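Quick one, T. Sequence first:
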Amino acid sequence: MKTTADQNEIANFAAMSEKWWDERGPMAPLHRFAPVRIDYILQSVRRRNQKNPPDEMAMGQAPLAGLRVLDIGCGGGILAEPMARLAADVTAIDATAEAIETAKAHLALGQLVVDYRCSTAEELAVESDRDKDKFDLIYASEVIEHVTDRQLFAEAIAAMLAPNGTVVITTINRTLPALAFAKVALEYVVRLVPAGTHDPKKFVKPAELRAEFGAVGIVFDDLTGFVPTLAGGFRQSGNLSINYGASGGWG
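Structure tokens:
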């Protein structure tokens, strides 16, 4: 089977697997990035009119209740657990076995349910029943810049997306500012993540992402940037030059 998995990338993340829930360790940027990613995912679901109009959500209703959600490249579960808290039926996959074991161990500390599996998107697509095993929401956050075959990745997502489903991708733009911040600054200046975590050649321009998913029928009708805040977190922005999110569904 053709695969999107990059063994070098898997080895890099396997070496960091015990640090997934250390908010001061190599995964610190992902923890700081988590709140704005969750907000963007929820906004995308609302915008696609899948479940719970805004007034119900404002009243405190579980915003993802009744939705089947797939987290691709879940790592240690930094996003999968919040999605489960929001009442989603979550399946979370990662190609790194060590990350899945860490995710399962952390999940056991709480009262949540997540179906963690060591798998790639294309493997899960083949295993799934194409008529029944569809997902209402599929997201891959900070993942696509690590895969070897983005078109195959898009095809696998399309094979598992429900008719009215939502797809959310967050990733890094291939620009000079992204190279300076996501590669040079984080890896070599402040050394917040290990050297070699990112390959700038795999960073993805929005036009490329739209074209690749458009080829399988998925239209990204929203692009939103994410920029750092003075408080150390991130906020949504119209600036797509470093990190950005893309969301949409069937055209």
